[in-house]
Amino acid sequence: MGAGGAAIGWLDMAAEWSGPEEAAAGGEDGPSVQATPGRAEVFATVVDTFLEKLVAAGSYQKFANCYRCFYKLQPEVTRSIYDQFISQLETSVKDEIQEVKNEGNLELLFNSLDKMVEEAKNQEEPAWRPSGIPEEDIRSAMVPYLLKHRSYLRKILKEKEEENRKVAESVLAGRNRIGELQQLIQARKHAWQAISKEQRELIMTFKEPQ
């Protein structure tokens, strides 16, 4: 299970643990209206609770019993070693959890889940439930997707057809321009040939008869 899945599992367990306590905290007058904590806040609470229970499980009394001889000789040093050990343990656990949060991008995941839950509260349509008939369930799930995909493909096809039309118009315009240039060249060639003929005839008129 990835970091995100493990974190969500912790949150689910935390919600189960906190359920009875929140119900009892409501009092005889009914549950008080309180803002629901976000998943990031619940996760931080779970971590803090875990550390508290971890420290409680490794109490100073148990630590001293494990090193009874040294404790009898140096009780103050034993206490100092225990405090340093607990401090380093808490720091190490917090660093590891923070690394897991960073690798799994849990902050963004928690915020996204909170947003989805809030949006679902305002949803008037009932949530989808399987009918028990696989064929109908697949059809009801796939048909909207396929229709949406078909609309997307039609849109792309229309854009490509418009693109091709513009390219065809551009090619046709280029061909027309080439035809016009060829006609112009041919006309100038004929004009030049006519001028050359006139010049030759004019030269011939100035030549002396033999």
Provide structural commentary.
Helices cover 82% and strands 0% of the residues. With 210 residues, it is mainly alpha-helical. Helix 1 crosses helix 2 (39-57). The model is unreliable at 13-28 (pLDDT under 50).
Strand residues, percent: under 5%
Q: What is the β-strand count?
A: 0
Helix content: over 70%
How far apart are the first and last residues' alpha carbons, in Å?
A: 115 Å
- DSSP helix count? 7
From the spread of the alpha carbons, the general shape counts as elongated
Rg over CA atoms:
43 Å
Structure classification: mainly alpha
Runs with pLDDT <50, length 5+? 13-28
> What is the arithmetic mean of pLDDT?
79
- H-E order: HHHHHHH
Main β-sheet: number of strands, strand sense, barrel status? none
Summarize the SSE layout with pairings.
Blueprint: H1 3-24, H2 39-57, H3 60-66, H4 68-73, H5 75-104, H6 106-121, H7 134-206
Helix pairs in contact: 1-2
Structure keywords:
mainly alpha; 210 residues; elongated
Summarize the structure.
The chain has 210 residues and is an all-alpha fold. It contains seven helices and no strands. It has helices spanning 3-24, 39-57, 60-66, 68-73, 75-104, 106-121, 134-206.
